[in-house]
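Please think about what follows:
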Amino acid sequence: MIDQKLITFLKLCELMNYRKTAEALHLTQPAVSNQIKQLEQVYQCKLFLYDKKRLHKTTEAAMLEHYVENLIYQESQFIQALSSHNNKRFLHIGATKTIGEYVIKNQVSQCALDNDNQISVTIDNTKKLLSYIDKGLLDFALVEGFFDQSKYQHIEYANVPFIGVCHKDHPFANKVISLNDIFYQHLLIREEGSGTRDILERMLIEHNHTINEFERITSINHFSLLIDVLKRINGITFAYEPLIRNDDELACFTIKGLNISHSFNYVFLDNDYSRDYVLYFNSLRKQ
């Protein structure tokens, strides 16, 4: 069983407020403070510091947080193994929306067809999936967004082109255009926290631009709807090439001097359970 002091520490890392942590755990605030002080005595380091009345985690706290998250996940896997008398494989898989909708259908189907598997699939944006991994709710996630490679283990799934997309009758269709030309267009974009939006924003920042320079922006958190709207209003978006490959109504365009590609990655905590699940799921691509 995980030490209660570590549970308290993890909740404080999440809420970054002693009072709220005490309320969430049904403890007194002095009890929370005392547990943190006991951990600091055990590990001989400061875990939290105040800067202008704002609580901050130290580097040591970030290291401990990662360790405790992994510890809780592995304990849950051990309990699950003890309670499973039929040797079933329990998989909790996460995927970003574009990958979940367009990339891993065959793997999920193959996984579900195996009677020895019991699976659940969560589709969400990169930011939320990483938080689910931290909380032990997912064994791994397949994401296209950016993540902290010092915190998570990762295995590349594929490296794919990231391209401009428009209707086949749009003036940009199948052309190479200048970067400045795109800002006169109506941009359709995914919600904040999504991988494709993050990649586009980073690309623009690298060239001293932001998405706020577009004449119009429409944000839609569902890619299928985004594409349907794009066809009707003659706007543009940016997406991964495999996602639009078989749509005869769409065309791609490229920006002069930019050749962008991005990796899809399996992301997981550093433990054998998660790695084994990733390797198993990835092996289904061959079937």
Notes: The two ends are 40 Å apart (CA to CA).
